[in-house]
Each structure stands twice: as structure tokens, then as C-alpha cells.
């Protein structure tokens, strides 16, 4: 998640995506369709997605979580790709690989080995586990997998980065050539390319696996059908970032940026279409028409994802080119906030379980507390030179 060269709009966008991640994880405890607390040893490990489930429910959470889930991780891979080719050109392959291992591999091991157990301790307690570290670690070590929480993003991004480094070693001009090609395209063509390639890989993937299925090996978790989709977004990010940010689609005066309002109107319309198709799919009988509705839902998913990603990219390029100290501080600490936030989310959700508060107030307290605590903790850690190199 290298942030060099600096670009205020892209830095703000990167933090905004992490803001959505915090909001997403905050609302899961108050989701109206959240499952009841599952046993810690449940084979499906449902508690890894819903470590804390509150009896207070927030109906609006279903819409926010559903909308987020369509695009926010794809946008994270897109934004992360922006900085890859400039870093490869500046550092060279060997130095780039070393930097990626330091900034992604090491944090992933720390997150899986320390932060994830801390974050899932409330799940142990709410599922009937006894207090104390020995009892929890005994239950943790009996698991057939090692949940890493949101850190799954890091190892997938590391893998994509290694592939990009391999491509650079073989064809050092490939990224720039792809970037020049994308820079010449109208926003509608960019959308068509992004949505078209996404549809190709996603429909192929969902033909063989359940769209909601996760693959796990030790701490390495990933949603199988979405890996090719994320790869497409990462590749587009690499291409868009391969040329100077002042030119092409990432310029503040680009056609994409100037049409931000069109994309922002289109994003909720595309998501509304997706929801309508999903509701229809839920009501149809299991017959020949079911396949057609599933394909329609998959196509609507990739269209909604592409529109939302381009809408937020255009919005930030056009309207968030400058920022004060607050925005700059949040952007500088965004990576650490992402790494640390899940611990604060689950513990605050757990501590508020028995409080007689409406779900909206609980969610607001969890979100604000998580943002402030993870922000402050990251800022303090960055005062240590060794931590600053990673965060």
C-alpha cells in the first residue's frame, strides 16, 4: 500500500475506503439478518464473519453492508494498484519485493498471529467460552483453520504484487503501455473494459464455485469467486497508475473526474437494479429460469461494482485534491488503522452488548471509538522508527 508518489486525492480516497471497512465491520453486529452466535468450534466458522452479534438490530445496516460488499474490496485493490508500477520503476524488482514483504508480509504474520486472536476473543466469550487466556488459547488451537480476519487482504495483495514484479522483470514497459492505452479511452470505454473483463472472469468463476464460498488454508482466507475479479481491478489500477498522475484518467481535469456527478447518480441506480434482480431470484422456482436470473444477478453485480468504483474515483479526483491537517493525518495513518481496527471493533461491540442503548447509538459509539483508538494507536506506533517503516 505504498503511497508514493503522493497524490492528495488518491490518499484521501484510500482512507475513505478504509473508512468504509470500519463502517462495514461495525454494522455487522447490528445487521438485521445477522445469525445467532455460533459455537466457537462450528465447522462453518460463521463467527469469523460475525464475531459479535447484538440483540439490538439496525435495519439500515442491511443496505449499507450490502452496498459496501459489492465494491469496497475491489476498490481497495484498484487503489493499491495505482502505486505499483511507479514503485517498480523507481526501486527495481528486488527492492520492490523486499519492501512488499516488509510492508505486507510482516504485518500479515503479525495480524494473523497476534491481532486476530485478540479480535476473536469476544467471539469465544459470547459463544460460552470461559474467561482467561489459557482457556481461550486452548479453544483457539483446536480450530481446524487459523482465522486472520481482515488481514486476508494483505496476503492477496502481496501475491498480486509479486505477479506484477514478475511481469516487470520480463516486460518493464508493459505497465506503461497499458497505462497509455487506458489514458486514451473515454470514461464510458473504461467502464466497458472494466465491467466486461470483470464479467468474463466472475461469471466463469461462479460457474464452478458458490459466489459466497471461502477457501482457507491456515491463516490464508479468500473468497474464491472474487479472486479473479480483484485481479482485474488490481491490473487496472496498475495500468492507470503507470503513467504520471497528472495525465490520463487520474488527472484532476480528466473527463472521468469532470463527470463525477454522472457516476455518483449512476452508482445507486446500478445497486438498486442489482437488489431488484436478487429479490426476484429469491422468489423464482428452481427451474430453467433460475440459471438466467443467476447470470443476470452476476452481471448486475459486476456492473454495480464498476460503476461505484469509478464514481468514487471520479469524485475524489475532482473534489478532494486538497485537504487540511486532519485529512492528511488520517491518510498517513490509514494503513495502521486498517491493520488495528478489528480488535477495537469486536471489543467495543462486546462491551456494549448488555447496554440498554438503541442499535444506532451502539453502532455510532463503536465506529467513533474504533476510528479514534486505531488512529491514535497508529500515530503513536509511527513515532517508533521501526514501526514507521512498516506503517
From TrEMBL:
<keyword id="KW-0808">Transferase</keyword>
<feature type="transmembrane region" description="Helical">
    <location>
        <begin position="143"/>
        <end position="168"/>
    </location>
</feature>
<dbReference type="Pfam" id="PF01757">
    <property type="entry name" value="Acyl_transf_3"/>
</dbReference>
<protein>
    <submittedName>
        <fullName>Acyltransferase family protein</fullName>
    </submittedName>
</protein>
<feature type="transmembrane region" description="Helical">
    <location>
        <begin position="332"/>
        <end position="350"/>
    </location>
</feature>
<feature type="transmembrane region" description="Helical">
    <location>
        <begin position="299"/>
        <end position="320"/>
    </location>
</feature>
<feature type="transmembrane region" description="Helical">
    <location>
        <begin position="189"/>
        <end position="209"/>
    </location>
</feature>
<dbReference type="GO" id="GO:0016747">
    <property type="term" value="F:acyltransferase activity, transferring groups other than amino-acyl groups"/>
</dbReference>
<keyword id="KW-0812">Transmembrane</keyword>
<dbReference type="InterPro" id="IPR002656">
    <property type="entry name" value="Acyl_transf_3_dom"/>
</dbReference>
<dbReference type="InterPro" id="IPR050623">
    <property type="entry name" value="Glucan_succinyl_AcylTrfase"/>
</dbReference>
<feature type="transmembrane region" description="Helical">
    <location>
        <begin position="260"/>
        <end position="279"/>
    </location>
</feature>
<feature type="transmembrane region" description="Helical">
    <location>
        <begin position="362"/>
        <end position="384"/>
    </location>
</feature>
<feature type="transmembrane region" description="Helical">
    <location>
        <begin position="101"/>
        <end position="123"/>
    </location>
</feature>
<keyword id="KW-0472">Membrane</keyword>
<feature type="transmembrane region" description="Helical">
    <location>
        <begin position="12"/>
        <end position="33"/>
    </location>
</feature>
<keyword id="KW-0012">Acyltransferase</keyword>
<feature type="domain" description="Acyltransferase 3">
    <location>
        <begin position="7"/>
        <end position="378"/>
    </location>
</feature>
<feature type="transmembrane region" description="Helical">
    <location>
        <begin position="229"/>
        <end position="248"/>
    </location>
</feature>
<feature type="transmembrane region" description="Helical">
    <location>
        <begin position="70"/>
        <end position="89"/>
    </location>
</feature>
<keyword id="KW-1133">Transmembrane helix</keyword>
Amino acid at each position: 500500500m505504498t503511497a508514493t508518489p503522493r497524490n492528495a486525492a488518491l490518499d484521501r480516497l484510500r482512507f475513505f475506503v478504509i473508512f468504509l471497512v470500519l463502517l462495514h465491520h461495525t454494522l455487522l453486529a447490528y445487521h438485521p439478518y445477522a445469525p445467532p452466535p455460533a459455537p466457537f468450534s462450528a465447522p462453518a466458522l460463521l463467527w469469523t464473519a460475525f464475531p459479535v452479534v447484538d440483540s439490538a438490530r439496525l435495519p439500515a445496516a442491511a443496505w449499507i453492508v450490502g452496498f459496501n460488499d459489492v465494491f469496497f474490496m475491489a476498490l481497495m485493490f484498484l487503489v493499491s494498484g495505482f502505486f505499483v508500477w511507479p514503485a517498480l520503476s523507481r526501486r527495481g524488482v528486488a527492492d520492490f519485493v523486499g519492501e512488499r514483504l516488509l510492508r505486507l508480509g510482516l504485518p500479515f504474520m503479525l495480524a494473523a498471529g497476534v491481532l486476530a486472536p485478540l479480535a476473536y476473543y469476544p467471539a469465544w466469550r459470547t459463544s460460552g467460552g470461559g474467561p482467561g487466556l489459557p482457556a481461550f488459547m486452548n479453544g483457539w488451537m483446536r480450530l481446524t483453520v487459523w482465522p486472520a480476519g481482515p488481514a486476508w487482504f494483505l496476503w492477496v495483495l502481496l501475491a498480486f504484487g509479486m505477479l506484477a514484479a514478475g511481469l516487470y522483470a520480463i516486460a518493464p514497459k508493459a505497465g506503461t503501455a497499458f497505462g497509455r492505452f487506458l489514458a486514451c479511452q473515454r470514461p464510458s470505454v473504461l467502464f466497458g473494459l472494466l465491467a466486461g473483463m470483470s464479467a468474463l472472469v466472475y461469471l466463469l468463476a461462479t460457474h464452478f464455485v458458490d459466489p459466497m464460498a471461502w477457501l482457507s488454508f491456515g491463516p490464508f482466507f479468500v473468497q474464491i469467486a472474487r479472486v479473479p475479479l480483484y485481479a482485474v481491478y488490481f491490473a487496472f489500477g496498475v495500468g492507470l497508475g503507470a503513467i504520471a498522475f497528472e495525465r490520463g484518467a487520474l488527472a484532476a481535469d480528466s473527463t472521468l473526474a469532470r463527470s463525477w456527478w454522472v457516476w455518483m447518480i449512476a452508482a445507486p441506480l446500478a445497486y438498486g437494479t442489482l437488489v431488484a434482480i436478487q429479490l426476484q431470484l429469491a422468489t423464482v422456482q428452481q427451474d430453467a429460469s433460475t440459471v438466467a436470473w443467476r447470470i443476470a444477478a452476476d452481471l448486475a453485480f459486476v456492473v454495480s461494482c464498476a460503476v461505484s468504483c469509478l464514481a468514487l474515483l471520479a469524485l475524489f479526483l475532482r473534489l478532494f485534491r486538497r485537504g487540511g491537517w486532519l485529512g492528511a493525518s488520517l491518510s498517513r495513518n490509514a494503513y495502521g488503522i486498517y491493520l488495528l481496527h478489528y480488535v477495537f471493533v469486536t471489543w467495543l461491540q462486546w462491551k456494549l452488548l448488555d447496554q440498554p442503548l438503541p442499535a444506532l447509538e451502539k453502532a455510532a459509539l463503536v465506529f467513533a471509538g474504533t476510528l479514534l483508538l486505531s488512529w491514535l494507536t497508529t500515530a503513536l506506533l509511527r513515532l517508533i522508527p521501526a514501526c514507521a517503516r512498516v506503517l
